[in-house]
Structures are given as C-alpha cells and as structure tokens.
Amino acid sequence: MARKITQRGKAKRLGGVGRKTTGIHKHWQAPNLRKVTIRVGGRPVTFRVAMSHVHKVYELAERAKGMNLEGLSEKQIKARLLALLDK
Questions:
Q1: Segment 35-66, tens digit of pLDDT
Q2: Quick check: keyword Mitochondrion in the entry (predicted)?
C-alpha cells in the first residue's frame, strides 16, 4: 500500500511560507508483471513474473537442462520447475 500526499503552498527555500499537507490518500500498487517464455523440453513454457524475478525464470531453465521433461504438458513442466525453487 502506498500513500499519495496532496500539498499546497510554496516551499520556504523558494521564498514561501512552507508547504501544507491538505490530504493523504491510500492506493494499491500492482506488481510489475511481465510474461516470460522459455523453451524447456522442446516446449515453450510461459511464466507471469515480476520484473525483479525474471532472472529466476532463466535460472530455472538452466537447472532444467538435465531433467527429462519431454512428453509432459506445460502445466506439469511448470510444476516440476517450481519445485526446483523449493530445494
């Protein structure tokens, strides 16, 4: 949760009498989500992750190179890759 502060007046350093707060409004900030598609086991797998965690998706792709994931659905592949994060 974030706050938006509404003020009026002129700053003292600019020759005014100072800034006065006239309102504080709460608002929600959504995560910065992006779709990241990687090829694992010969299939494209899409993840929706925050930009701060995109590097983790590529780490998972590297760790999955030795795994036998062929013949699995995208949902099953995702489940196996996400299980790697817990280890």
A1: 999 988 788 899 999 999 999 999 988 888 88
A2: no
Read off the DSSP letter of residue 79: H
Q: What is the DSSP string of 3-44?
A: EEEEEES--GGGTSS--EEEEEEEE-----EEEEEEEETTEE
Question: What are residue 64's phi and psi, to 5 degrees?
Answer: -85, -5
Which residues make Cβ contacts (< 8 Å) with residue 18, sequence separation at least 6?
9, 10, 11, 12
Model's pTM, two decimal places?
0.61
Show the domains of the chain with their CATH numbers: 1-30 (no CATH), 33-86 (3.30.160.850)
